[in-house]
Recover the amino acids of this structure.
């Protein structure tokens, strides 16, 4: 099985490569930050080379009580959490509006020992307040983490007709922005360990 593994940035791609065996049949590429860049770049890569599946890997935020800093999360679904329309004080997701889907199931089996399984939200603005964290938790009770690329990569995979997976390692708690509490190095180390499980 020849897999394409995509990350947002080069540091994540380097962490993934560090965990893969030298002879692994996987290609690792950084495709940019956010769902639009990830979708466009992934679609281009899939059009140029036939891959049997695509895995979105990277660091992300974890919801308190659901995923702690240093944990690894494997998506059951990737959900575009802020793709839709506001309606007064509420939110209408894209699928309810009837304009497509705001979620893709993970269809590529990925097993990482000790990983938490659950919904991973794709957001275009990383959560930085307790209010937004609470709203997302209430709107998505199965969500365990958030990132910024998964849904975009899933869209590209669906268009290409190949299976998709998303793996995140947790660098920070979702909520008020406190960079002093972030553990990016630890999350990148965890990403290397998660990549080793893929190989």
């Amino acid at each position: 099985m020849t897999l394409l593994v995509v990350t947002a940035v080069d540091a994540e791609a380097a962490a993934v490569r560090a965990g893969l065996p030298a002879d692994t049949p996987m290609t690792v590429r950084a495709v940019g930050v956010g769902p639009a860049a990830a979708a466009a770049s992934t679609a281009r890569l899939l059009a140029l080379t036939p891959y049997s599946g695509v895995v979105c890997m990277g660091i992300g935020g974890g919801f308190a009580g659901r995923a702690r800093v240093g944990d690894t999360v494997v998506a059951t679904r990737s959900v575009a959490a802020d793709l839709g329309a506001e309606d007064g004080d509420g939110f209408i997701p894209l699928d309810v509006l009837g304009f497509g889907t705001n979620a893709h199931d993970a269809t590529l089996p990925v097993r990482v020992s000790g990983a938490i399984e659950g919904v991973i939200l794709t957001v275009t603005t990383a959560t930085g307040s307790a209010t937004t964290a609470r709203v997302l938790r209430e709107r998505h009770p199965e969500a365990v983490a958030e990132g910024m690329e998964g849904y975009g990569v899933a869209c590209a995979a669906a268009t290409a007709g190949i299976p998709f997976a998303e793996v995140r390692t947790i660098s920070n708690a979702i909520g008020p922005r406190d960079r002093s509490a972030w553990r990016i190095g630890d999350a990148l180390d965890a990403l290397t360990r998660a990549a080793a499980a893929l190989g």
